[in-house]
Amino acid sequence: MADFNSLFYLFLLFSFSIFTSGSEAEAKDAPFVGINIGTDVSNLLSPEELITFLQSQKISHIRLFDSNADILKALSHTKIRVIISVPNNQLIAIGSSNTTAATWIQRNVVAFYPQTLITSISVGDEVFTTNPSSAPILLPAIESLYNSLVASNLHNDIKISTPHAASIILDTFPPSQAFFNQTLTPFLLPLLQFLSRTKAPLMMNFYPYYVFMQNKGVVPLDNSLFRPLTPSKEMVDPNTLLHYSNVLDAMIDAAYFSMKNLNVSDVVVLVTESGWPSIGDSKEPYATIDNADTYNSNLIKHVFDRSGTPLHPELTSSVYIYELFNEDLRANPVSEANWGLFYGNSTPVYLLHVSGTGTFLGNDTTNQTYCVVMDDVDSKTLQAALDWACGPGRANCSEIQPGENCYQPNDVKHHASYAFDSYYQKQDRASGSCDFKGVAMITTTDPSQGSCIFPGR
Fold first, then answer.
1. CATH second-level architecture of 33-342?
2. How far is CA 152 from the centre of its chain?
3. pLDDT, average across residues 373-383
4. From 126, 204, 212, 227, which residue has the greatest number of CB atoms within 10 Å?
5. Is the pTM of this model over 0.70?
6. Which residues are catalytic?
7. Contact by Cβ (8 Å): 308, 316
8. Domain map of the chain by residue range?
């Protein structure tokens, strides 16, 4: 496996030690960026390889969609903090039986904690919208698990909540007019009261990408991507006169206003999922590498700025990016398989641009990156990409001509890799310059061989 130490994901070193100016308690409460890890990936790294990879990238907060025992064991004695999850198909059993809940806690929490730093349990996923028949059993399941934590004296260390889809909030803009779907109030109000009582967060999955796609022509792309705006382009809440420069802040404040409408004001919002797809089909033209890079880079900067939201400037929500790997086993649409920051082989899909943010660098030039051909690419498509690179792309292709240093091996894949890397380096490794209609990828492994020296060296 390639070593990515000091590579661009240094930005995810959200360990508590970076906040040296405050007390330990202050550092513990500092906002962070974590990352979701889905496993619908062909040739997924082994648990040991996965943890080594996370450590090499300085990723210190992760969320699992289950409670994989092998991964939890591999996390032991690391500083990586993890949210584990109860899948929707286990809710009825846990909510119907205190014994089942106690067994789940013993098997998935007590067996690993504190060697493995489990911080939270997310119970179900978007239950009210994707599995509404389980809504009545959701809070009983949460309370049974919580009682089992109390019995093990872990309830102060490990929080329990449940992630919600953004669609449970209606009339989200202006945020001051937002409210929860009233048909959910019988379930949602006691849940919020539980979160308030146990000091657990309201987990929300917020995707400005979908807000933009569903409201094209109303919600500008720049607002969705956190791009800098002139004051005239900011969204203004006419009731509060608060100015919103990005969609995510508006979504978070809509959640706060919605809770306030139910007389709950002491529960914080944790964004358990947010991201942007890098590839989509013809119906999703804004799912591009450039937009994904822009969104996630600016999202990270936004959390690091610790500027909060217009309604709560004193309170910055932590965010888990969706997701670590492209889950190539996901079904259509195409975008479903392309939310990852990395390919399954652990090479980056794109380089995030977060240089100068805190103590982190977005593109560490001490580690060179190269642009090469992906595996299993159709030769006809590859030849067309090579022709473009050496033609309109104006890559330096002289070294792959007959008799020159990089002519051998004489095959389209080798020649295309050289041409792609030439173009990529000439573009100063800019976001989106290593794509070539999806046939190229970025790597930190030097592809040079013998006298054939690639441009990136």
1. Alpha-Beta Barrel (3.20)
2. 32
3. 87
4. 204
5. yes
6. 126, 273
7. yes
8. 33-342, 370-443
